[in-house]
Amino acid sequence: MKHLRGLIGLVAVAALMGGVAQAQRIAKEPVEDYIHEPMPPGFQVIIAELEGPVFADAKGKTLYTWPLNAVRNGDLGERKNTPTCDDTHQRVSSGLQSPYPPGLELPDVENRPSCIQYWPPVYASADSKAVGNFTVVDRKDGRKQWAYEGYALYSSALDELPGDVRGGTKWWRTGGDGRETGVLRIPAGPPPAIPPQFAINQISAGRLLTTAANDRSVYVFDKDTATKSNCDAACLREWAPVLAPEGVKPQGEWAIIESSPGIKQWTFRKKPIYTHILDSIPHSRQGSDVPGWHNVFTQKAPPAPKGWTVHGNREGDVLADPEGRTVYIYRCNDDAVDQLACDHPTQPQVYRLAVCGKNDPALCNKMFPYVIAANDAKSDTRIWSVMDINPTTGKKAAPNDPGALHVWAYRDRPVYTCARDKKPGDIECDSWGELFGLRNGFKAFWVRDDFGGYHG
Amino acid sequence: MKHNSILIAAAAAAAAVLVSGAAHADDLLKDRTIGYVLINKAFATWQSADGKTECPQGFNHGPREQFKELFEGVTNKYAETQLQYEAEIHFPGTGPEPRVFFREAQGKTALGLNLDGKVGPNDFTGPDGEKGIDNQMYRVVGCTENYRGPDGSARHFIESYMQKFNYNRWLFELTNVDSLADDDDVTVTIYRGLDGLTTDAAGNFTSGGTQRVDLNRGKEFIYSMPGKIKDGVLTTAPADITFPESQQRGFPYQSVHAWQARLKLSPEGASGLMAGYLDVERWYHNLPQQWSTHHRSYGAEPLPSQYRAMVRLADGYPDASGKNTAISTAWEVRFAQALIMHPDAPQTIAGKPAKTDIAR
Amino acid sequence: MTEITRRRVLRGVLNGGAVTVGLPFLNIFLNGNGNALASGEKLPVRFGTWFWALGMSKSVFVPKQTGAKYELPEEIASLKNVQSHINLLTNMTAYRDGNFFCHYTGWVVYRTGISPSANLQAPSESIDTTVANQLGRSTRFKSLTATATGDVRSIISYENANTPNSPEFSPVNFYTRLFGPDFQDPNAPTFTPNPRIMMRKSALSPVMEQIKDLNKVVGAEDKQRLDQYFSGLRQLETQFDRQLTKPEPLAACHPVKAPKEEAKTGNDSVLVQQRHNMMTDLMVMALACDQTRVFNMMLANPFSNTTKAGYDKPHHTCTHEEPRDEALGYQPNASWFVRRSMESWAYFVEAFTKVKEGDGTLLDNVFIMANSDVSNARVHSLEEMPAFTAGRAGGKLKTGLHIDCKGAQASRLGFTGMKVMGLDIPSWGTKSNQTNKELGELLV
Amino acid sequence: MAVFAKAGIVKAGPAVCLVAALALVSCSAPIGKDQGAAPKVASTPEPANDGSEKRLRVLSEAQYLNTLAHVFGPDVKTEPHFPPAQRYDGLLALGTARAGVSGAQLELYQKAAVTVAGLITNRERRGYLMTCKPASEKAADRACAQQFLAYTGRLLSRKPLPQAELAAFVETASASADKLQDFYAGLAIALEAMLVSPKVIFVAERSESDPQHPGQQRLDAYSLATRLSLFLWNAGPDDAVLKAAESGEILTPKGRARVVNMMLASPRLETGMRAFFDDMFAFDDFSTLAKDPKIYPSFTGVTAQDAREETLRTVIDHLITKNGDYRDLFTTRDTFISPSLAAQYRLPAPPTWTPYEFPEGAPRAGILTQISFLSVHSHPGRSSPTLRGKALREILLCQPVPPPPPNVDFSAVENPNSPIKTARERINIHQKNPACAGCHKIMDPMGLALENFDAIGRYRDTEKGAPIDASGSLDGKAFKDVVGLGQVLHDHPALTSCLVKRAYSYGTGGSAKADDKDKLDYINARFAEQGYKLPDLLRTITLSNAFSRINETPAPAATAASAN
Fold first, then answer.
1. Fewer beta carbons under 10 A from the terminal one: N or C of chain A?
2. What stretches in chain D show pLDDT beneath 70?
3. pLDDT at B345 over 60
């Protein structure tokens, strides 16, 4: 991978070559089962901590696609079979994210990398042949590139070890409402091994299992066994068994039981599953407040760092540091045609400084302080990590640099708290920034929502 | 439990109504209690037919127009234009704005209530001649299209999200009421509700729906204050309150000092004005959380200029340095009569001990 | 020429798969005077829909007069030479029934009679699918959907609740799909029957076997009912037969030149109109060649990104942001976009009049309903919504009228369409959008 | 007890109404005798009888879709819009024993079959719904096709397919797979054909001689399994019931009892009984119900939908969950309310359905006073004692009322600004005109008792200012208000016998006829002994010879209807 001018130099290329320990989490928590599709030689599937199974190339780098999506004044991203991410260094804004005009010279334009420097295409050799859903598409520069379901595949310069998914995520309503988040790259992965009646909803707490028809969360009951549902008549008034076809072939983690005469019910990981009749919003978690009942995740998100807490407020629950201060995530996607991100320490910081403290790093550090990590703090997951940051430049620093802060980070990006928050559960700085924090701004780390707001 | 206990209690009294039939206002009282749910809300902006009286220089320019005025021919660097404007929106100063001109609503007529009991020089006179109206917020928003009736964009979207997003459900319940015509001692209790609004065959919001009270996540929005009813008009004693107001993006709330309401009660509901001293910082802080600069340009709303006007026109609750922190404001509101249900035992999720596992 | 019975020809066709029928086709397949289908069946009535985005500017869209002679206000002035072929319906209502999603609820109520409970998730199949399922003759394509947005994600039709029908968005692909290699030109001598339909036909034989077994156990009266069922199977078989035989020649169907090059992508209103007109010409010819009898045309997405040269706001942003011009009483640029949409609607209707069919034109044998997603886009209102019909549906539909529907349910337009197409459905839609009444004033 | 059979009355006319009235009067006399439950007596034995007719029925759309949902999963859905059945002798279900399948309808079945077969064999579902994989996806695989088609054929046609027919379907699947070079496309072609085959669409009952009773015919095991399943679950038999038929266990009294008890204990009984009562109460009228939005703005499409659900939920909860007395349905104050109904009853109710009991002394007692009956049997803008009275007679008492004579002058009734205020004054006009009095005498009294409820079921005690008099009498028993009417209905013998008649004909798929009188009397007697409990009634019917036996001699060629 061509070494980049200063900007991405810090990537420990050596670590990658060594193919250090698989990012497989210690298999205490079950991981998502997926359909083993035929893949081109060298491709593999890696279980990412948050996103579950994702495709990766031979070196373990996660693969992403950039599907076409609408921004306010037009469409960006790639159509099927037509990769557009190329070596051009964009210099001006596209003006597609209203109300600002196009043609504004982008910040730090001289050092702005090209699209493929951030998103190295997964090239295919001239003689590569299509395999399963993987096809070969032609790039404008004449080279061939692998595509999955027609969308060209890229890896991310930000990913270091196999299992890293730092380039893009499935968590935010990615690819959904580009009008607010901009057109994001999303990790490509094999379809989950779940019956067509079900769907997976990626939320911060993990890969939540819901019904496919209307996004209703499914639940399991402590009192049930693998072969018997103990939900009696009164219980059945609030919990509806998810009906299964008469003669379905049990496979993988799925089976069916006759929970009552003539009624076939799905079981997942040896537990009969239900929907909660009183749930008021799609992919709700209100049912898990009823003692004995739990939401079902094909794969739970890794736990927050030790000692961190979760607090309730007027909309739902948010993650907080040990002192109860709500934790915020900063996200940024610029307004150029190639929609490069601007929320990683190696990327321009001017966007963040504008909305966190009117371009004044000191005010930023006062209004949005980093979450300081103890010197010996250690994260046993990849998605949470500690890093050293120069608070003035916002860039990564060496551990013993003068003034460097040892801070907590999520997906290799520092997390923040908010000076305006006074008590646990406060969300004063939620949705703060351009397009209510979804385009260039801060969102609280929402763990649960009971009213069905837009959490990005 | 075969029957929901509160249902029986509330219903036993209802039967009395059923037997008596006619929906005369007093008949809606059930053990001296009646509930209402908010169905319409907008800033009370008095408007002349052609808008010239209060906005002789026309309406304000929005972000798109101000961008041209501020930066055209000056610079076309992203960081010095778009990011600079956004930075100014999120951290507005109070100094002069040379290249842009903010239009405040002129004239002496405005809707609203007399909040300070006095008739001061800056006060307005109501269209019906009432003196001493305090509504400086009218000057701030009166010439900004977003807030002007009948279909200013922000006005429309604030109301439509109030109607369709249950986070914003807002109730008040009158208790120990002897008569809805005259009663000089009633108790007004405000709650956040949990249920949607009821609509009729034509799609209008109507009375008679049920609203459960949110004693859990909505605990912070519960307030109680005395009220009086005279000739069918309810007036409440001033009280500092907060109420939820979100367009489903951020989840902010408004904070109002000396909030009070003057509402004409009818069998179907209540309508009139509510007013108070709106906390300037909180109202302004909510704007970028609610709707983006893109949406502000729907109704040509120049946020930085608007902040300066609010600070200038703030007329209440001075801070230590003597600078007023709140601005007299009035809203036109309409409520529908609703059957309010209090859950058996107040759940206490908000007070729940901290959990550690995100995915409990 | 030896007397070749239809049966032998069919058998030949069946066994040999692709068989070039090297014999003069005319006298075998046409009836006496050569203008109706061989089976003497009346020319088929087709069902179509058309969609434009972001409603109207009421003060310059809704005519003052109702009934037959109404003057076209300026926003729909471009409809003058199709005014006699269409009906303008105003003041219809789409009921929210407790849910509302900007720019989605409105058009989904017109097309399903149900207010959707989840954004971008259809509550059921759309009306074109319902009609396509009920139509007698199953043509090569069950239905055809095309969009002028150039975007495959523009959805205006649903096969069922979870399966949208993705539209044809590129004129070149649409041409190849319609008139490419596997196009069966009804007027050409060669014909290759579709193998899947062959198999469907042969699959009926075990079904017919079963009837013998049942006949042994039922009484006399029930035997009649089984016989009726058996004749139904026969009818199904002739259905498949008809699809396996060379279609009757259709004078109106003549080969169309392939589009020179791919239509330019881009949201400028002129480009959208170009793509719309190219797609319309292809769709009309597809109908003339009886490739389908149900069709949908979508001019723009509900959140329309169509732009106007020199104006910095696309249509959707403009409807929210442009101030109402006090003098004119409406938003001038927003109205500009609606006028361009109406020009496309005029082109669409006129294209049907250019195709001769029987003693009239294709427009005489078609029912088209046209609707938008809102009435006043600025506040997403679903009251006072406008809609159109076009065509005479084989003589069952009046034309040339402006009808003030006085707040009637929007779903009544779709219900009228289904009745005119001969569907026997007692009621359509749910909750407040449920209706069982047609728009009587439209019916002959 | 004289019950009208609609077909028997040749033409409407004044004389006819008089006959109907007389018959009623005569029938009112014996009411007193049945009053009060007979002393506990050993359960009445079933009289010797030769059961019902063997019938050929068409599956209803609900039965077709329920079967598909249980065999292939709730997400294998299609909206076929089959034309609605015709109501015959009070039930749509009986129309299916007379309906045919026209060519046009068969095309709907075929198109629905294409959708269903496509869903089953698509890439997502095939792994779950098919127990085997083809050797190659590009060619036929007889063994796998055989395994799947045998399994599916058995569940869809409600009995294992004979070897020859199965072989024909497998042959079709293989030929198609080879022709289309796609195993799953070939399988879909065979599945489409099976889904439109007569053994799936029709329910052809077969009989066999009864070894214990030589010369007596009875339903064979599979036909009995199907009759039971369509009656109790409104769907085809599942694997367990089919196994009981395969082993012949279902033909033994003990075996049939086990299967029936299993089916009665299943939650699917609720689906079956909802379908039965929705049919019996003629609730399909809701699909065309519309109220004038100007007069009744609060009555929306949602209210109509919830009103239908309220009554069905009350009936199922009372009769099945609580195993209550059928007669108490007409006096109970228990019901279920949803938010939209709560607004009509002016009660608070949380979202979803909540059990609720009207307080003592409230005018709401019995399902008659629920919004469903009151709104569906009213005009769009006004209540109608006649419509309500007629509905109660025909639906709850199985007493059809002849249609009005063609030359009725409605002007006196319809003119809006007449001095008449209440419905009772309007109705009295009918009493004066002999042509009308006959029938109106048997309809209006009950309807007038319900005048305290307007056209959308809201309570009122005055109409245009005049107080409403809800008193009246039913077949000689007087009552002073609607609660009184409920009590009189509770004790009316025709109430329970009507349910028995409807249930027996719904279960056997054909209307009860003259020579069924002794069977119905037996069932009625058992029903009374067991305290008028629905599950017991269903058990009595399904375990009776009247249900399982077949009278081989087909009914006389004349139309099946005969006065009974």
1. N
2. 1-42, 406-418, 553-564
3. no
Q: Indicate whether B353 pLDDT > 50.
A: no
Torsion angle, CA of D321/D324/D329/D334, rounded to 10 degrees? -60
pLDDT of residue D98: 85
Q: How far apart are CA D33 and CA A240, in angstroms?
A: 47
The residue extents of the domains of chain C are 46-190+253-442
- B246 lies in some domain: yes
Q: Are D260 and D543 a contacting pair, CB within 8 Å? A: yes
Domain layout of chain A by residue ranges: 1-192, 206-300, 309-449
Contact predicate D305/D467, CB 8 Å: no
- Within 8 A by CB and 6+ apart from D449, the residues are D470, D471, D472, D479, D481, D482, D484, D485
Coil, strand or helix: which one is C296? strand
Domain count along chain B: 1
pLDDT average, residue stretch C184-193: 78
How high is the pLDDT of residue D467?
86
Phi–psi pair at B329, nearest 5 degrees: -145, 155
Of B15, B202, B204, the CB nearest to D362: B15
Q: Specify burial of residue C436 (Cβ count, 10 A radius: 0-12, 13-18, 19+).
A: middle
Q: Which two tokens stand for residue D401?
A: 């009322």
User: Is C38 part of the contact surface with chain D (CB cutoff 8 Å)?
Assistant: no
Pick the last residue of a domain from D201, D232, D248.
D201
D302 and D194 inside one domain: no
Q: Please give the sequence-ordered ranges of beta strands (E in DSSP) within A225-360, or none if there are none.
A: 239-241, 254-260, 263-268, 271-272, 274-276, 293-295, 297-300, 309-312, 316-320, 328-332
Cβ D300–C213 below 8 Å, yes or no?
Answer: no
pLDDT digits (tens, 9 = 90+) for A246-290: 878 788 999 999 999 999 999 999 999 999 999 988 889 999 999
Answer CATH for C46-190+253-442 from 3.30.390.50, 3.90.76.10, 3.40.720.10, 3.40.50.720: 3.40.720.10
What is the reported pLDDT for D6?
31
Number of neighbouring beta carbons within 10 Å of residue B120: 11
Establish if D389 belongs to a structural domain: yes
CA dist D119 and D83 (Å) reads 24
Handedness of CA D328, D329, D331, D336 (dihedral sign): positive
Query: pLDDT-derived band of residue A456, with 50, 70 and 90 as boundaries?
Result: low
Structural domain contains residue B351: no
> Which residue, of D176, D201, D226, is where some domain finishes?
D201
Go through chain D and tell me how many residues it has: 564
Please check the confidence at residue C2 and state whether its pLDDT lies above 60: no
| Number of compact structural domains in chain D | 2
Q: How far is A73 from chain C (nearest CA, A)?
A: 6
| D533-D537-D539 Cα angle (round to 5) | 120
Establish whether this prediction's ipTM goes over 0.90: no
φ/ψ bin of D551: left (φ > 0), alpha (ψ from -120 to 50), beta (otherwise): beta
Q: Looking at the partner chain, which of C95, C130, C203 has a beta carbon nearest the beta carbon of D172?
A: C203
* Residue span of the structural domain in which B58 resides: 5-341
In a domain, D302, yes or no: yes
What's the gap between Cα C10 and its chain centre? Answer: 32
Chains with at least 3 CB pairs less than 8 angstroms from chain B: A, C, D
Pick the more confident residue, D482 or A121: A121
- Judge whether B79 is closer than 8 Å to chain D, CB to CB: no
Q: Ranked by mean pLDDT, which of B337-351, C334-348, D111-125 comes out on top?
A: C334-348
CB contact under 8 A, C213 and D206: no
pLDDT at B360: 53
Cβ of D302 and C431 within 8 Å? yes
Same domain as D359, residue D478: yes
Instruction: Output the CA–CA distances (angstroms, integers) from residue A360 to A280, A349, A356, A370, B87, in the order listed.
Output: 44, 11, 8, 15, 10
